[in-house]
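Quality-control log, excerpt.
Job 1 of 2 completed; input and output follow.
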Amino acid sequence: MNRFPRPRLHCRFLSAPPALRLRAAHAIVGALLPVQSPPCAPPTPRQTPCSPAPLLCAPPRTRPSISAPSSAPPRAPNTRSFACSQVVVHARTYAATATAADDATVEWDPEGPAVPLPRLPFRFETGVGLFPKETKTRPFPPPFLSPPSGSFSDALSTHGRPKVNGQLLRGVTNGDDAVYAGDYFICANDGVGAWSKRPRGHAGLWSRLLLHFWVTAIEKDTLRHADPDPSAPLHCRPYEPDAIAYLEEAHAAVTRVTTGPAEYFGTTTATGAQLHFRLTDSSSSPCTPQPRPIVHVTNLGDSQVLIVRPSTRQVVFRSEEQWHWFDCPRQLGSNSTDSARENAQVTAVDVQVGDVVLAMSDGVIDNLWGHEVVDVVLHAMERWTANEAAEQHAGSQMQFTAQALLDAAKVVAMDVYAESPYMERAIDMGAMYE
């Protein structure tokens, strides 16, 4: 249902053609939750009375909720949100070894034993809504996709599961786009579909590879700041993430694996939100710094990150879209002069537990104005809270909210007479006429 009565055009003025307005759309919604910890171990002799308090002590994963975690049983796996009932997201581990120095950190070592990522004091509860422009997604070319084995004995064939450098690709492909939703990072990369008409062009491959290497760059840096002692209560030492470096590293990695014999061309926008924390002094306990959540937003292109505070029904942050000209966003990839260092917008946003972080492609924000997005999100959350049946239907509040947002965008996109932000922008840029 379209909950927004909007003007419809029945005069000589031309609305945006459906071929332009019906874009691949995806919305990733994450609610900020604290991670509840049991009492930590007593301080060791090395700690002073004013040593920073431990942040985490092996907390159990709790039931999805917009408020503090309850004592309900752990949630079931949800393939659309890439989350399971453990603190460490499924398959999110790396091989690592620790040095013996006093300031030892976890170093990247492909041959070392697998260790889980350190846990942070806060996490995202996520939901994903997907709607591809094309119903059939182009398969990835070799060597990124294994051909069928042709053997009946190969029950565990990797056919259909894209890989790079021996690792399964993170995230999910949505047409030419790629999305990722984890406990500490959400990402929406919008591939430029025009590359599908070029020889060896594959925007879907580029957007998915950039997402994969972006996620792994963040996780490798998190591991470098992990405490090498698995029994240490402070699982992750406070540090300042370098959002630009992560995206630069990802871009360079995609360029490496798509040149040479496996040469494929493409470009993609990049939009991500990384959940982290900073330590601040507490007025009640000045010797015990307390963690406060912070979201590092990175955006290059015409997708958007929006942070909403349901408690006050206000927008905390909205990233700015970037274009070279109308319908040509800034993008990373083949023949593009844009770069993460020169063009990406990076913002550190202080947030609160209960805030909602959205990463949306232009398929959503081209069809819904900002106030409509906020209204859909808040209304969906209220419906889910008021109706227990919604939990059984959608799995989680954030999944229910993401799908509601996507459905609202689809209603406008399918109506050739409805006014929309995309149509307004096209008129302003002189792209439409009588």
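Job 2 of 2 completed; input and output follow.
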Amino acid sequence: MLKNTIPVSPITADVETFVCHTRTDHINVNATKGYVLGADKRRCVDLDECKFGNWNCEHYCVNVIGSYFCRCPKGYLSDDARCLDVDECATRESNDCVGDCINTPGSYTCNCSLPGFAPSTDKIQCEDIDECKENNGGCEDICVNDYGSYRCLCDKAGYQVGADKHNCTDIDECAKYASKICQNGKCLNTNPSYTCECYNGYVPDDKNMTCKDVNECMVNNGGCAVTCINIPGSYKCACPDAGYSLREDGHSCEDKDECAMQTASCEDECVNTIGSFFCLCNKPFTVLGNDSRTCTYCDTKQYYNDISYQCEPCPPHSQTSSPYSNDISDCVCEMGYTAKLDDPTICNDIDECLIDNNGCKYKCENVPGSAHCLCADGYQLLSDGKICGDINECLPNNGNCAHLCINTDGSFQCDCKHGFTLDVDRHSCEDIDECTLAHYSVRTFVKIPSEVTTVSVKEAIY
């Protein structure tokens, strides 16, 4: 590795080593290398090797205690004896040139070929040229120096740097900011700004950047007699409801005659009122329907009142038999009810069970306006609603029996297969331990209405 010094094993200054050789006739003393015997002939002192030539050093010899080393000047590196030139242009980190680097013995120079740079006094680095110092860089307004360059700016509002990059020209804001300024108006470019020429119903805002809507309703209600509605760029007058319309002046309201305009849709007669209308039904026994336009008869639970011209409700549990009923006496009790003797407008419930049990074969239960038959447990009503028939509990899910289900009149019972006995829950079957019995017999029966048939008989004796 090259270096700028050549150390030659220096020895520290406190070395006092020397060698004595004893002979019969005298003492011979040899000093350590790098030292010489002192004047007292007893101590070793440093030898300044550099006084006796350069000791093969190409440039400088530097003495140290007990030794010496070679030193190279700046721009050179040592290879233990020689000093070799350093090529500062070989790497970008070893020079400060902005442009071309030219190596020289022990140094280098910069060509500084890039625009905006010039060589320093010592020519070993490139310095930025401040173009703004001379004639403001040719800029009309502001000159800003940058590293290796410069730029012109315009400080005056409404101006920008022109195509020559030096002079200031007017900004055409109308073209540059077309979508942002003078909305709802026309943009007029001026030097050095612009103005907005707003459309009708708009005025310039405080900064004259755009046009804002004028709320005409804020002044004298816009001249409207009733309601003023502001809309972008204009306004309009409105009337309180659908029964009025604007006059031709567009500001005042007048009644709308729905009957004359045939917009009322009345089935019979239409009567106009200020701001509205209503329908009448002149046909006998008819009243206005729920839509207040069509005419309808009273329903069966109402009668027509000739005085109020309205449908009145019949008393509870009564109804009329004709749409032309016009008196409460036309309301008669519904089936299952009977009129009270002293007040025919009151309908009392008839207890149908009092007469022949209402035809029920088991039990009759009276309910308001009617009655129905009931059956005992294990039975159900047949299609006539009067007679009760047995329910076969074995049909759905085998009556929940584990083995056999036997239907009976009004009930059922579970039985078990051979070798099992019925559990206490009367549905499950438990295994019989025949080994614990000395004698057993098993009989299985199937019960059929009106007769019993023995299916099997088996006896065994042990």
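Post-run check on job 2. Residues 5-86 form a domain with the Laminin fold (CATH 2.10.25).
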